[in-house]
């Protein structure tokens, strides 16, 4: 028996098995977050209607100018969204009727400051960021403000603006890298 070919065969079968398992997990609604925007870990999509404070996942629309930038600069890796990029995982911070104020210190929602939401002028590699698409005022019907207050450089509504509320799907943590398990 040729041990070199045996090793190649086992390796190929292992890759096929891992790919199958990952595809199955994805199809069952499991997602992995490896970014600093939210706790790293495994999340599962749910059928709950998104509400303020919920974790949500969504695809950035291809028509959004920041979608192209996200791909070009590597803010989002390749993924299953129609744009060819990975979906985002954020917290639903603002819903229709909420009032958004933009200040140098960050965002305020309905008159309450949101800590950790100052928009950086440059990305982590020192490249200038284009002007934000987020505008102050009332969030219109059908739109949502998504943020991560856990990381000051988060790629969220501070950059790409409001997103369609209908594009959001809730997500719940299953297991976080710190060992926390969630029901």
Write the layout of secondary structure elements.
Blueprint: H1 3-27, E1 30-33, E2 41-45, E3 55-58, H2 65-73, E4 88-94, E5 99-103, E6 106-109, E7 112-113, E8 137-138, E9 143-147, H3 157-160, E10 163-164, E11 169-176
Tell me about this structure.
- The protein is of the alpha+beta class and 183 residues long.
- It has one domain: Umud Fragment, subunit A.
- It has three helices and eleven strands; from the N terminus they run αβββαββββββαββ.
- It has helices at residues 3-27, 65-73, 157-160, and strands at 30-33, 41-45, 55-58, 88-94, 99-103, 106-109, 112-113, 137-138, 143-147, 163-164, 169-176.
- A seven-stranded antiparallel sheet has the order 1-2-11-3-4-9-10. It has a four-stranded antiparallel sheet with strand order 7-6-5-8, with no helix packed on it.
- It is globular and about 70 Å long.
What's the gist of this structure?
The protein is 21% helix and 26% strand.
- The CATH first-level class comes to Mainly Beta
Separate helix tally? 3
Kindly report the average pLDDT value. 86
Number of domains: 1
Largest beta-sheet characterization = 7 strands, antiparallel
The sequence of SSEs as H and E is: HEEEHEEEEEEHEE
Helix-strand makeup class:
alpha+beta
Q: If you compute it from the alpha carbons, what radius of gyration comes out, rounded to the nearest whole angstrom?
A: 19 Å
CATH level-four homologous superfamily name: Umud Fragment, subunit A
- In terms of DSSP E residues, the strand content is 25-35%
Q: Determine the fraction of residues in helical runs and give it as a percent range.
A: 10-25%
What is the 3D shape?
A: globular
Tell me the total number of β-strands.
Answer: 11
Q: In the CATH hierarchy, what is the architecture at level 2? A: Ribbon
- How are the strands of the biggest sheet laid out side by side? 1-2-11-3-4-9-10
Q: CA-to-CA gap between the ends? A: 49 Å
Low-confidence segments: 17-22
CATH topology: Umud Fragment, subunit A
């Amino acid at each position: 028996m040729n041990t070199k070919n045996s090793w190649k065969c086992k390796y190929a079968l292992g890759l096929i098995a891992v790919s199958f398992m990952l595809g199955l997990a994805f199809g069952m609604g499991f997602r992995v977050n490896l970014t600093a925007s939210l706790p790293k870990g495994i999340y599962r999509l749910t059928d709950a209607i998104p509400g303020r404070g919920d974790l949500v996942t969504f695809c950035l629309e291809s028509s959004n100018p920041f979608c192209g930038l996200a791909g070009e600069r590597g803010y989002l890796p390749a993924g299953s969204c129609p744009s060819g990029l990975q979906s985002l995982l954020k917290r639903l911070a603002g819903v229709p009727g909420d009032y958004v104020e933009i200040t140098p210190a960050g965002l305020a929602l309905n008159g309450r400051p949101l800590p950790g939401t100052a928009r950086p002028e440059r990305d982590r590699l020192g490249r200038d960021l284009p002007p934000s698409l987020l505008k102050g005022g009332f969030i219109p019907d059908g739109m949502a403000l998504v943020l991560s207050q856990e990381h000051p450089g988060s790629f969220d509504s501070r950059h790409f603006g409001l997103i369609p509320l209908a594009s959001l799907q809730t997500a719940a943590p299953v297991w976080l890298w710190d060992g926390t398990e969630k029901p």
